[in-house]
Amino acid sequence: MDAIKLVYFHLRGRAEMIRLMLEAAGQEYEEERVQFGDWLQRKPDAPFGSLPYIEYQGKRYGQSIAIATFIAKQLGFYGKTNLDALRIDEISWLWEDQLTSNLTGSRWAKDEKVKAEHRRKTLEEDLPKFFGFYERLLGENNGNGHFVGDSNLLLAHKADTAKVPIRITATELRRSDMYSTVPATAMRDVLQRRIELFETDPDAAECLKRKNLK
């Protein structure tokens, strides 16, 4: 794969899935982290007026899920079969649905009343719904602790790329101080198991350390 440039804010967010795959594969890439104060001036540079986007072979490409899918295919992180890829896509788009419901607003809404309502809906409505979905999908894979295949995210050609959204969800909950308020139920247990399994993998730990992504 040719060298690639990733452009995003100084955040994990929608670029983390892309970063982690590039790091895991040892793929050469450049990263530009746009400061919020510079965004309005830089916005016309983005293909669709949003971040992240990548520069690859002289062209710019946007939309985070599309970019992540391309990277996964190029670097061998898209499962072994078309059904593996379908399951990875399911999880990726479930996470996108979750992110655009209330989780983002629970952190970034400027009005405190609006933010509080997003937090309430995240805890009382979204987390039970989405983690119910995730837990069911985990159970459908022979109960081996992975969504796809039988290996962790960063093992080439057996990559459980679908696991990354769970870690990102946990990160957002922690950064918004909501993690401690997640009810002590099976929902929280599955969240904690995903975090521990991901972050105790030696390849994942090394990847996160290199880019300071914890």
Automatic annotation (TrEMBL):
It comes from the Eukaryota. Residues 2-79 form the GST N-terminal domain. One of its GO terms (molecular function) is glutathione transferase activity. InterPro entries: Glutathione-S-Trfase_C_sf, Glutathione_S-Trfase, Glutathione_S-Trfase_N, GST_C, GST_superfamily, Thioredoxin-like_sf. GO terms for biological process: glutathione metabolic process. Gene3D superfamilies: 1.20.1050.130. Signal peptide: none annotated. This is GST N-terminal domain-containing protein. It comes from Pomacea canaliculata (Golden apple snail).
